[in-house]
Amino acid sequence: MTETTVRVPKQRDRGGRRLARHLAEMVVAMVVGMLLLDPLWRVAGTLLDGADTLARPDVGALVMATDMSLGMAAWMWHRGHGRAATAQMVAAMYVPYLLLLPPWWAGLVGDNALMLGGHLLMLPAMVLVALCHRHAHPAPRPRHPLVAAVVRRWPTGLALLMAVDLWIEPTVLSPWTLLVLPAGYLLIGSWRRQWRDRRLLAVQLAGLAAWAGLAVAAVVGPDDLTGALVAAGWLGHAGWDLAHHRTGRVVPRGYAEWCGVLDAVVGVNVALALLLG
User: N or C: which end of the chain has fewer CB within 10 A?
Assistant: First the structure.
């Protein structure tokens, strides 16, 4: 008779993995919150003449805590966490800075100590909150149709948020930025192993040659044509993105959507910089 041994995972191991995953999600949500909201603060500072205030280390620390808190709270709401857990995790963002601000105001700690110390104290505070709610089993909330529609178009929203400050200060980018556009497709296509069809690789290499040639022409050509060529390169790549979004080949459709919107916004802003300059 043959005995079969079945290994049953320990409940503690599953709980540890769930805790680690939860903390990793919180960190990612915090970073996303900072990346998405920082341009909005800069735009608001420019419009309201508050750039100097935002540049203060104490204000900057609280703004950073706010950005991280909003990103994290939004994700916790999406994951179905309760209000108490969300409020405590938000407090873990602010309390470290609130503890360090009085010594900073008194001149006992420097700017770097304020920012670094806040982050170092924040991590154990997050772990403590997560441990207090480790036995909770949140359930994702049902999405409102409007929320579901926004979520489906998240690449567009991300691109618009990333480019929001360009509308305030349109500028002509360096011609060499055009090389980033085809390079992204080549890198992602290689990672996704899309080159089994050699025709796809040939098309991408042709695109690289085209945008590289456009960049070189913008650098060596007359100065009054540089901006126009840069704008044409970005706008042209938006069409390239649209074609790939329809086919779904080489890059994921989400990337093609994000890249297309961002390219179009950048191209339009370069054109505006030329018209306003």
Answer: N
